[in-house]
Amino acid sequence: MKVVKFGGSSVASPEQFQKVANIVLADRKRKFIIVSAPGKRHDVDRKMTDLLIQLADSVAEGRDDSAAFASVMERYQEIVTGLSLEKLFVSEIQRNLQETIARYRHDRKRLMDSLKASGEDNNARLMAAYITTLGQEAYYVSPKEAGMVVTNEPGNARILPEAFERIGTSLKNREGILVIPGFFGYSKEGHIVTFPRGGSDITGSIIAAGVEAEEYENFTDVDSIYSVNPKLVRNPAEIKELTYREMRELAYAGFSVFHDEALQPVFHKKIPVCVKNTNHPEAPGTSIVSAREPNGYPVVGIASDKGFCSINITKYLMNRELGFGRRLLEILEDEHISYEHTPSGIDNISVIVRAHQLENGKEERILQRICTELLVDEVHVERNLGMVMVVGEGMAKTVGIAAKAANALAEAGINIKMINQGSSEVSMMFGVDDYQVNEALTALYHAFF
Amino acid sequence: MKVVKFGGSSVASPEQFQKVANIVLADRKRKFIIVSAPGKRHDVDRKMTDLLIQLADSVAEGRDDSAAFASVMERYQEIVTGLSLEKLFVSEIQRNLQETIARYRHDRKRLMDSLKASGEDNNARLMAAYITTLGQEAYYVSPKEAGMVVTNEPGNARILPEAFERIGTSLKNREGILVIPGFFGYSKEGHIVTFPRGGSDITGSIIAAGVEAEEYENFTDVDSIYSVNPKLVRNPAEIKELTYREMRELAYAGFSVFHDEALQPVFHKKIPVCVKNTNHPEAPGTSIVSAREPNGYPVVGIASDKGFCSINITKYLMNRELGFGRRLLEILEDEHISYEHTPSGIDNISVIVRAHQLENGKEERILQRICTELLVDEVHVERNLGMVMVVGEGMAKTVGIAAKAANALAEAGINIKMINQGSSEVSMMFGVDDYQVNEALTALYHAFF
């Protein structure tokens, strides 16, 4: 059995609903369907979730909410009418929204979470109803019924460990196609609590792990994951297959296909993920797997990101000082700074961090602490660094990858400020000046693809 | 004023004593002379220090020490006779050695330290006497008189902070050439305590810092420091000038010109060091300075070392776990493991350590702890790694260095397993298989020189 998740643009309009239904009905293994709230129908459209946030804000701030309310209802109206569903659905949605507003008018966080969640929830109800009209047995299943128990942090839910077993028990043996809203779960106290944004991916991943699906299909609006950000390089190569590790390295820097933590549940169960296009379902898509056969291409993709800085520390005989690195990291941890890499020489170490973490006086305090607590000879911050990551399993075992990459950068006149490649690694990181990141990305892309 | 240190081979025979005296007398600034014990006169010769260790062992173990005693005395006899010094010196040295043996016969550590120190001490007395015979005012100064107060750890002395001022006070205003034995100091309790081996360099460096010398000349038996280990590459380029930082990076791996900690005192006072050849004093030698002008060559030298291993750790979402790196280093510190580098990806980190540190069950224990305390997905040790370091200030600012290095390695068919280059660094580290280290070194040497 497969878990199939449809993103916002896949369920944005009656036409998209029809495509989704066709996809679901085309494969009998597609049993667990996760839907997002209606997304954008065109470039200048607004997402349902944004409309709902606007509605929640209007209510909470005591402003006139009728326009916001109307724009929410309009979207549902369009879907119900377009799919010739019973008009009753519209009035039911309207009544539910009004009840939610009445109940949480003075509890802004719950109001926000409940209204946001309604985007997915109502869409799931409509999808189940629509599939039923096509003659297939299909049911809406609420996250509560499904067993999606989460922590009680509005807007930042985390799945509880016991949820997976509950999900398996409650869903595995049910008949028909089950349509489950993404993006939220229920706390033990019975509250609706939403995941961080992009959370429908999380729901799909959790359900897939809970029912031990053979595959987690993730339908979005692109044919595949690309080897480089298509906004930066025109018509980049499609990736047919990549490993979780490769996905993580790419997702880190400039690839926003998945929410950071979304794949963790399927990763742990080694369930393959397939990214496909709702608008072009016959394209093979991209498979994300726990291990893959070498395909002759050591590099699978190239990612980039900007806005880093490097804290550069020098101390004579540093490498003879047991505990130096640990004490340095302790200072950063103490200041709630997370770091990316720590390239080091004999008497020097650089700590690469995202620059925004050093704002509001933190930089001065950290430099001061490094000076006085570690008695270093010199410490300074280098700003405006970017990183380009060349990613691929098996890269580490291929002679000449570093040469090819370094040559491409040298030929483009780009100075490499840092390099980081570990023994078991699937990526090679090049630190360059921020302003040269896009050039570096392009040069590397053309070298490897 | 200069502090001038002569290594063992520079003071191994009467002929070498004459060379040293000529060097000292050739420059009126050469006022503070540090001498080692007599070194090897030819390839199969034995060093005085080794003879003295043998003597100490014989005494301590109650064996017949007459042969060992005779071989020590023979060396002094040769020097005294060869330089036509008074015969009295020989009998004085003999009496001193006998007294030392009698006093410490039952205290092996003190016996060892006192006998070892006598090699330098007697040589300093003979050198002062010899220079005097040449018509120059010259005095032997004992480390005690000089103010060399050290910690009371036999064989592992460390200079005490107050020593520097004492040295300045006791030596700066004295007349004549002052000859001071290297390798040992006195504890506050009045004991002779030796530095770790190679410690005459340490004495010279401490005296230079104490008297605030304008230069520390270090005379040995090579014309200069070479850009690569001459045992591995034939006739390598000489280095005219390098910075302390470059020296440290080179000294780390395969360059044994200086004892690791020897340069710390002069480093802190920014006193330049000049390495010269007693047998060829007209050669310019190598200057080690705190900063140097770029000379158009970004790479100053290439070093290598073997016998490393890499602890490779993978954990999904590692980079989102604040404190992961710190807790990992804490485990290593706890197990008294010092590490070299920690190249990292998004969800993985490698810790490079010297392999001998993981013996005697430590490896199993550390892997176990990493598993259970850090809940990693995977951890394993990769063995037989070597490192090649390309060293040079300004390298980081030159486009194409990494490309040149990586190309040279690729052309030699060498797979790069790790790369480490930080933002402010003077070195670029390439990890390769142990068995390819020498090939890698040669390939890099020919690329840059």
From TrEMBL, chains A, B:
One of its GO terms (molecular function) is ATP binding. GO terms for biological process: diaminopimelate biosynthetic process; homoserine biosynthetic process; lysine biosynthetic process via diaminopimelate; threonine biosynthetic process. The keyword Nucleotide-binding applies. It catalyses: L-aspartate + ATP = 4-phospho-L-aspartate + ADP. Pathway: Amino-acid biosynthesis; L-threonine biosynthesis; L-threonine from L-aspartate: step 1/5; Amino-acid biosynthesis; L-lysine biosynthesis via DAP pathway; (S)-tetrahydrodipicolinate from L-aspartate: step 1/4; Amino-acid biosynthesis; L-methionine biosynthesis via de novo pathway; L-homoserine from L-aspartate: step 1/3. PROSITE patterns: ACT, ASPARTOKINASE. Its EC number is 2.7.2.4. Residues 390-449 form the ACT domain. Pfam families: AA_kinase, ACT_9. Transmembrane segments: none annotated. ATP binds at T220, D221, Y226. The keyword Lyase does not apply. One of its GO terms (cellular component) is cytosol. InterPro entries: AceGlu_kinase-like_sf, ACT-like_dom_sf, ACT_Aspartokinase, ACT_dom, AKIII_YclM_N, Asp/Glu/Uridylate_kinase, Asp_kin_monofn, Asp_kinase. Keywords: Amino-acid biosynthesis, ATP-binding, Diaminopimelate biosynthesis, Kinase, Lysine biosynthesis, Nucleotide-binding, Transferase. Belongs to the aspartokinase family. Catalyzes the phosphorylation of the beta-carboxyl group of aspartic acid with ATP to yield 4-phospho-L-aspartate, which is involved in the branched biosynthetic pathway leading to the biosynthesis of amino acids threonine, isoleucine and methionine. This is Aspartokinase. It comes from Evansella caseinilytica.
